[in-house]
Structures are given as C-alpha cells and as structure tokens.
Amino acid sequence: MVSSLLSGLLAAFACLASVVAAPLDLDAPQYDGLGQQARDVLKRATPAAPHWVIYSDKYASGTTGPPPVSQVAGYNVFALSFLLLEGAWDKAEEWTTLTAAERSTVLSQYHAAGISLVVSVFGSTDVPTSSGANPVTTADTIAAWVKEYDLDGVDVDYEDFNAFDAGDGSAENWLISFTTELRNQLPSGQYILTHAPVAPWFSPSMWGGGGYLKVHQSVGNLIDWYNIQFYNQGTSEYTTCSGLLTTSSSTWPQSALFQIAASGVTLDKLVIGKPATTGDATNGYIAPATLATCVEQAQNQGWDAGVMVWEFPDAAASWITTVRSDSWPV
Fold it and tell me: Quick one: signal sequence residues (predicted)?
C-alpha cells in the first residue's frame, strides 16, 4: 500500500515537472499507470507563466457557461464571473445550471485544449470588508463551492475601494486572512489562486494599511499570480507602453509593471490586465496591435507573466492572437 502510493506520487511529481502552461490531459496514454490519488495531485497542477486569462460575465446568446473552446483558443485560463457573497451570478450561476455530466464534458474539452476553468469572486458589486463579511468563513464557503462544481481554482477580484481608502489596514488584513484560509482549503499545486487588484494599490506609501504590497509581503507566496487591472484609473493612466510598463503618472506613482516589480513583486506574477474594447472599461484601453508591441517590449526585458482581458465575447480568439503576435505567437 505505502510503496504503491509512493511510486504513484513520484510518478505524479515527475509529470508535474513537465507542466508548461496548461492542465494535463490525464486521458493520454503516458498517464495510464497513475492511480487516482496521483491523478488528483496532477489534475489541477498550477500552470506556469505565461498566463493568458479571459473573464466572462456577459450574457452570450446560445451559450450557457463557457463558450466552445474554439472561441477562446490562445488563452489558458477562463474565469467564470462572479461568485458573490450572496451566491453565484451571471456566468458562475450558469455553470451551476449545467448537469454534472455536462460540466464534466466541458471541463474535459477545456483541459484537452490546455485551458483551466476558474471562478472569479466578488467583482465591483461586492464589498466584503465594508459589509462585515467574515474572511475565514467566506473563504470556506467559496472553497466548498469550487470543490462542489469541480473547478480549477479561484480568482479574487476584490474591489472594496472604501476599505482600502480608509487607510486603517482593514482591507489588507481582511485579504490576508481570507487568502490564508482559501489556500488552506485549496492547496497550492492542486488549485489555482489568483488576485485581480487595480494597479494603483501597488503604489508605495499611498495606502495607510500598506496596500497590495502589504498583502503580497504577507501572503504573496500563497498567490499564484496577479491579474492586474491597468484600467479604470484615469483617462491617461496606463494608455501607452511607457506608462504601462516603466513610468506611471504622479497620480499613481510607482505602479507601472516594472515599477511594481522593483517594489518586490516578482515579474512572473505580474499579469497585464486590459479591457477588450473601449466599451468594456471607463478608460485605460489600448488597441490590441499596440498592446502587442508593449507585450513584446516587456518580454525583451525579461517579463513572461502574460495578459488578462475583460471580457468575453468582446475579446475572443482573434484578440489574444493579435496581442501575442509579437511575443508568444498562437
């Protein structure tokens, strides 16, 4: 019993070493000898950078839950949005309306295409700290939902701006407790756990509670990467390659990509987030072809974290194909 389990786990970890940027197809012949426990270890192995992330919150006619994989070719993470404090809404709710067999089929198709399926929680309508939600019990509830519906992980889209603006550490401490418990329930290497902060929250010395740099210093080792929202922060913020990558404005100092890295966040955790169209955000839009040149510039400086987009269907396979064209062609 012990020796067979050990051999299975050793085989599993050997396979883990071969993970590049996608979930493994455990139906492939090379995994025939693995037992169920070893398969469970591999099932949700966290994909390596670069991460190509797309959110979906918008109703799409004729589609319940995720779209056919052909429509999101070029991505490797699809985020069903949102799971709120009061329960699942929009695409997350649609996922619950599918039968277990239908969900299993979709998951198999997505995993075979190298795409992880996660749920994004909170979003702009939830204010967990300000509303008094308990971070530990909230994490437990979310983790149980992820397990019940067999998803690959969680994206934490925390947008409680009043809590951050208070400067008393309530937002940061809530996130630290929440992330710690969420990772306890969804172990690293088995489940993806990402955060989606707005870029200014990484500005040093602007937040009385320490901002996202405090969160990163405390629980960054538990977070796989950050889907950073470089948009909705002002009409001229993060709209050029230089403003996005190297020199942010004085309004949000030291919050461009490489400036965040200089503050101590490793480059491979800093995913560039942008809206698909001008209609998907108030501001911060960069045309896909221009964004492709920014991505190439960042790649040439050693960055490889990837790109996030809000949202499907305004962004689909053609959008990411363009954005990746000068760096990691599809």
Answer: 1-21
CATH of domain 47-324: 3.20.20.80
Residue 165, both tokens = 């603006």
Task: Please tell me the distance from the alpha carbon of residue 214 to that of residue 177, in angstroms, as a whole number.
Answer: 12
Structure tokens at 277: 């169209």
Residue 34 and residue 26 in contact, taking contact as beta carbons nearer than 8 Å = yes
* C-alpha 67: how far from chain center: 18
Contacts of 201 (CB under 8 A, 6+ apart): 164, 207, 211, 212
Distances (CA, A) of 285 to 105, 154, 293: 35, 25, 14
Q: What are φ and ψ of residue 123, in 5° steps?
A: 70, -170
Per-residue confidence (pLDDT) for residue 17, from 0 to 100 = 39
Q: What is the pLDDT of residue 3?
A: 39
pLDDT in the model for residue 8: 45
> Would you say residue 2 has pLDDT above 80?
no
Residue 44 has pLDDT above 80, yes or no: no
Closest to 174 in 3D by CA, of 121, 136, 226, 221: 136
What span, in angstroms and rounded, lies between the C-alpha atoms of 145 and 190? 15
Could you give the CA distance from residue 290 to residue 66 in angstroms, rounded to a whole number?
28
Average pLDDT of 172-184? 99
| Domain limits, the chain | 47-324
